[in-house]
Amino acid sequence: MATEIKPSKKPAPTLYFIAAIKLIKGAALLLLALGVFTLANRDLSDAFDQFLRWVHLDPERAFFTRIGDWLDTITPANVREVASGTFLGGLFLLIEGIGLSFRAKWAIWLAIGESAFFIPIEIFELIPRPNAPHHYSIGLLIVLILNVAIVWYLFKNRERLFRHHH
After folding, report:
1. Least CB-packed of 12, 88, 92, 131 within 10 Å?
2. Are 128 and 134 in contact (CB under 8 A)?
């Protein structure tokens, strides 16, 4: 009786780096979402005032007063919506990172689609608009370059990285 020997998967440090980034971002968003959920039933203006006093800043300064006034307009439902969206985004990134780690074929298309989705938005944000002050963002440019590199790498290497043998 002959046993079928499955070829071992080649090491893919770049793929695992991308997966690690997705997992870290996903975990960070889940933690942020949980933190935001805890704020849903709190007086945000009062919490902001307490924070300012804790870091020894004067909450009566005009800048901080405007922020406090803005925080008064935020409802618990708004906070829960933001927390829910953040939670879902974090969960999506975790699932994507886990799928990439296990080299699931669906995960590569999810990662390509997710990374490619933001490229036009990032380009739009980098284009100066008439009659508007333009603030060049090196951080956004780096994110754009990384997203293009991720899409290119995953698309170019999809067969090699995600080959399934039956």
Report:
1. 131
2. yes
